[in-house]
Each structure stands twice: as C-alpha cells, then as structure tokens.
Specification:
- The structure is a single chain.
- The chain is of the alpha+beta class and 475 residues long.
- Helix content is 33%, strand content 22%.
- A hairpin with a 3-residue loop joins strand 21 and strand 22.
- Helix 8 runs parallel beside helix 9.
Length: 475
C-alpha cells in the first residue's frame, strides 16, 4: 500500500495522468463540437474551388425568390452523390422557397415516368419544378467529360452542378424564355454543341435559321451571327438590317476578313452601324498582354461595362488567338454609340501579310491599339423610339471548345444577357475538378519569375550563408 501511495507522489505519474486527462478532454471537446456543428449544419468547405459550396451569384439569386420551387433528387437510397447532395442541401438552406425531396427511382418508377414524357431520366438526375413548368437535369449534364489521350479514357473537365441547378430554377420561374436564332445558309462557322449547351443552360432557347430560305422570325429575341464563308445576298442584308432597326438584338462573332475578297453586302450591314472588320491579324508588342512566346495569342485589356464588370473585378483574362481589329468608322448615323469592351495595348499592330515568316512589324502593317470587342447602341425616333443593340467580337476562336476554360464563353453569355436586357441572368461559371492544371503566365511574368528564381533567390541564399559563416567564424 505504501508503495502505491508513493507511486502517486511520483512526478512522472502525475504528469502522465495530467496528460491523459487533457487528451481525454480534448477528444471530448472535439466530439462535442462536431455533434453541435452537425446539428446546426455548420460546415467548412476546404476544397480549392469551393466544390461543395454555392457561389455568391447563386446565394444572391436565391434571396430574390418569391415563388416556391421543389427539387427532386433521384438517387437510390443510400447511393446519393456526396457533392450533389451537399449542394442541394445548401439550396434548401439558402431560401425558404426551396424544398428538397429525395425520390428513389427504383422504388418510385411511376413518379419518374410522369416527368419523362416518353424520354429517359437517368438515375442521379434532378427534377426542378415550379407552378409554371419543370426541367430535368440529367446526370450527364452535371459534368463535362472529355477524352484524355494520355490514358485513352474520358475524364471530368468541369463540374456544372451549380450552374445547371441555379439556371433551372431561373428557367422554371421565368415567364418568357428568350429565343436565340443562330444564322446559317452562307457556310457560317457553326457553334459547337458544348457552347449551345452553355447557352441553353443560361436559359436561352437556341434555334437555327437559314436566312437564304426564310426571314427573321417574329419570335426572335436575339440573332447570333458568325463568320460567313460567302457573302450575303442583298435580301439577306436588308432583312437583317430591318430586324435590327426595329429594336433588334444581335451578336456578331467574326474573324479577319480577307482583303482580297471582302464581302460587300456583309460589310455594308456592319458599316450601317459604324464598324468594319479588319483584314489583318493582331500581334501584341507588349509582353504583358500576350502568351509567352506567342504574340498572336493575346491577353487583352478588358474595359468596365455591364457585360464585363465581373471579369474586371476578378482580374480574369480572355485567350484571344489571331484576333482582328474592329474599326470604328467616322461616317455613321447620329445616335450610334460604340463602346470598347476588349482591346489591345498601344504597342499592338496588325500583320497584313498573314503568310509572313516573322511576327516583327513590317512596312504596311497597321498601327494599334485595336478594339477586339465592342458594344453598339443606336437610338432613333420615327413614329416611336427604336433602339438597336449589338455586340461585335473580333475573334472567331472565342467560340472554340479549346478555349472554353477561359472566360471567353462567360463573356458571350454575359453579352447575350445584356442584349436581351436580362440583368438577373448572371452566368454562373463551371467549377474545375481538383486536378493539377498548368499555370498560365504572360511573357513579362515569366521573365520576372526567371529573374527571381535564377538570380534573386540564389544570391539571397549565398548572402545569408556568408553572413552565417562570418558570425560563426567570429565566435
């Protein structure tokens, strides 16, 4: 007994006992905090791109809801996708008008068939429904998959869960869905299926129209015109001009016009609104505004405008390969206002001879700066006030899938929303899956990084080593 009493007097036992008690208290506190956080739904998203959290765009939009919306998640019991489930719960927690229900499609086949309308609804899909209409978000629409040739298999390149759900909520609550007609008939550059999907996700009803065969329909809210392969006929040009002059809206996504075969009718249509497409490829002379080693791949300057404000504040850029200038004409009708949206630096120049073996400036090249995208508003009065609104883009590559990971498509969708005067239609960008992506630097940043890593840091390390050596030597 005496030995036992003496053992309790040992400092090591007392310290050990104290450590054990502290560990037990810490574990108890940790468990208690987790239980309380679970009851209060307090969570912290530690993923780099906030994959399990709603963006500020969605949260702001949800605060404006006035009508009820029900989200039906079609998952087999116990097989819910964690990311989808977490986001759905955030939607329900962010608005009293959002109701979330889980329905097992295997146990409720008649429920699913009532929405399928003869089609197929994938397991894991989401049905968004209001009193006006419903929309089905298929599982395949929540993730963009592309083939990775390194492993010869499809990989997820973007996560579209939030954009799909938020825009579906907006869709089922909107009274009128804007109709966008993509112009065909003259070998125009087609829109990719992915870009059309993004436009539909942003709640545009996208259709095609062959202007050679028919006029602009009465239900057209917005024309989408890409670079034609041949000139328009006079009737086509007159038809589009008549549409635009009667409160019409249009996006012109164009590229360089060959100086040897300009399209007279197409040029006259644009000239009527004060602009003309360049016949050259822009070379950026300022290393801060082009991709390292490739002065024809521009990182242009974005100017403040309702279309671009969210890009200006986020310091994002647009990949712009082989862009051309949008030239503003001195001769244009009164009431026409042309606003620069995207432009080059003053050191840019236009390479007229696109077959040249050098990007250096040569005699005959055009001096910059250049506008790469402009917004045009024309207001005039006849028997009433008429307003034409257009956005003209000077880079056809902005439409390509290859550059969709930049803000190019966000810019196009913001432009479409601005044209139809839909301020609430803010485009919610997709999320990038947690994979290693290459860091993109312009030439100036690359030079600075090289100087820091190859000169500044080694010299600093040598200086620090010399100081330490001197101090030890003196001691």
């Amino acid at each position: 007994m005496k030995k036992l009493i003496n053992a309790f007097k040992d400092k090591r036992l007392r310290y050990g006992s104290m450590s054990t008690v502290m560990i037990l208290l810490a574990v108890g506190l940790f468990v208690t905090v987790n239980l309380v956080a679970g009851q209060l739904n307090v969570k912290k998203d530690l993923t780099g791109d906030q994959l399990f959290s709603l963006s500020s765009y969605s949260k702001t939009f949800l605060t404006t809801l006035k009508d009820d919306v029900t989200l039906y998640a079609l998952f087999p019991t116990g097989q819910e996708d964690v990311m989808v489930q977490q986001l759905l719960e955030e939607y329900a927690a962010s608005s009293a008008h959002i109701r979330l229900e889980y329905r097992d499609p295997l146990l409720n086949p008649l429920f699913v068939e009532g929405y399928a309308q003869g089609g197929r609804v994938e397991i894991g899909s989401i049905i968004v429904e209001s009193a006006k209409r419903f929309k089905i978000i298929q599982t395949s629409e929540m993730f963009t998959r592309e083939i990775d040739y390194n492993i010869w298999d499809y990989v997820i390149t973007s996560i579209d869960i939030e954009p799909q759900i938020s825009n579906a909520i907006r869709y089922v609550l909107t009274d009128n869905i804007p109709v966008m007609y993509v112009v065909t008939g003259n070998a125009e550059m087609p829109l990719s299926a992915n870009l059309i999907s993004k436009l539909e996700m942003a709640n545009f009803s996208v259709r095609e129209i062959n202007l050679v065969q028919e006029a602009v329909p009465d239900d057209c809210d917005l024309l989408f015109i890409t670079t034609p392969g041949r000139d328009w006929t006079e009737s086509e040009a007159i038809g589009v001009r008549t549409y635009l002059e009667n409160n019409g809206r249009a996006i012109f996504a164009l590229g360089r016009m060959d100086s040897s075969r300009r399209f007279d009718m197409f040029d006259s249509l644009l000239a009527g609104f004060g602009v003309r497409m360049g016949s050259y490829i822009i070379v950026e002379g300022d290393t801060r505004y082009h991709y390292p080693g490739y002065p024809v791949i521009l990182f242009p300057i974005i100017s403040p405008h309702p279309i671009t404000n969210n890009f200006v504040t986020s310091f994002e850029t647009m990949f712009t390969p082989e862009g051309t200038g949008i030239e503003t004409l001195d001769l244009r009708r009164p009431g026409t206002e042309i606003t620069s949206l995207v432009s080059t630096s003053r050191r840019a120049y236009g390479k007229v001879n696109i077959m040249a073996t050098t990007t250096e400036k040569e005699p005959g090249d055009v001096d910059g700066p250049f506008d790469l995208a402009v917004a045009i508003e024309e207001t005039f009065f006849v028997d009433d006030i008429y307003t034409t609104k257009m956005v003209v883009l000077g880079c056809a590559y902005w439409l390509e899938d290859e550059f969709s990971d930049s803000i190019n498509w966000d810019f196009i969708i913001n432009s479409a929303n601005w044209l139809v005067e839909r301020s609430e239609g803010i485009y919610i960008p997709s999320r990038t899956p947690p994979v290693i992506v290459p860091l993109t630097l312009n030439q100036s940043q690359a030079n600075q990084l090289m100087v820091i890593s190859c000169i500044v840091l080694p010299v600093a390390a040598m200086a620090a080593g010399f100081v330490v050596w001197m101090l030890r030597r003196n001691n």
